[in-house]
Specification:
With 260 residues, the chain is α/β, with parallel strands linked by helices. The chain contains 9 helices and 8 strands. Strands 1-4-3-2-5-6-8-7 form an 8-stranded mixed beta sheet, sandwiched between helices.
Length: 260
């Protein structure tokens, strides 16, 4: 039997942070179009997320005993692929947008799972210090004040807890243009989001007590790659990811680290 619980926090909690308020309003408004806007249901996107979840589950399952928190769960794109790979721990999926979480909950409807759904602000969690064993997210850190977000993640994460994230790479020319030039932004983007600078992120992770830091550029394959070209583009992407200098221009980063 499904035991999914939606835990709603006081909406006034978010009003003190204008960025959080804008993000919440934006994603509430586009919740039903979100996955289509980013082609998340296209075959290429699904193949990417399956590979990512296989790698990340290995990392996250090495965390100490306790719950896993997914932040920025949105419509459940990562949740529904990662959940079944996480072993012997509670899975909490959170987002600032109640409307996005309603859709996420519906995508798992009828499945035997115990995901807990929580409305949370990534810049001010309700969780106590050192209460979470593993933290993950797919395309969330680039929406946030990065230092505040990493500081909060470190606060709630247990020692030896693991993190695993997937984020856009500001060093990729295409990503740079669509994040920095307003009229080129995709329909689903917000005014506050950017992309991740790996050097800044590495510095912040060290500052807030992380070690074994891995920030690996990857993916030259777009989500909306035509079906007949997916394998060709994937093989070409894997080839580019091995070339010095060129590999740092990948469209995204796979990010993993362990808290001291």
């Amino acid at each position: 039997m499904q035991t999914v619980e939606v835990m709603m926090l006081n909406k006034d909690k978010f009003m003190g942070n204008s960025v959080s308020s804008r993000e919440k309003e934006h994603f509430n408004a586009i919740a039903f179009e979100y996955e289509n806007n980013y082609h998340l249901n296209d075959p290429a996107a699904k193949r990417k997320i399956l590979r990512l979840c296989e790698e990340y589950s290995e990392c996250l399952n090495l965390s100490p005993e306790g719950p896993l928190l997914e932040i920025g769960a949105g419509t459940g794109f990562l949740t529904r692929h990662l959940y079944n790979l996480i072993k012997n721990r509670d899975y909490i999926a959170s987002d600032i947008s109640p409307e996005m979480l309603k859709i996420a909950k519906s995508t798992l409807s009828g499945k035997n799972n115990s995901v807990q759904w929580k409305v949370e602000d990534c810049l001010s969690y309700s969780f106590s210090n050192s209460s979470i064993s593993a933290i993950t997210g797919h395309g969330i850190l680039h929406h946030l004040d990065l230092e505040v977000a990493i500081k909060e993640i470190s606060r709630i994460l247990k020692p030896q807890g693991r993190i695993a994230f997937y984020e856009p790479n500001i060093l990729n020319p295409y990503v740079f243009l669509i994040k920095k030039i307003p009229f080129l932004r995709p329909a689903g983007d917000t005014e506050d989001e950017t992309a991740i600078n790996p050097f800044k992120l590495n510095k912040l992770l060290k500052k807030y007590n992380f070690r074994k830091i891995s920030i690996v550029p990857c993916e030259f394959t777009l989500n909306n790659t035509p079906d007949k070209l997916i394998v060709l583009f994937e093989n070409f992407s894997r080839f580019l990811e091995k070339i010095p200098v060129v590999k740092y221009l990948g469209g995204s980063f796979r990010i993993k680290a362990e808290k001291i």
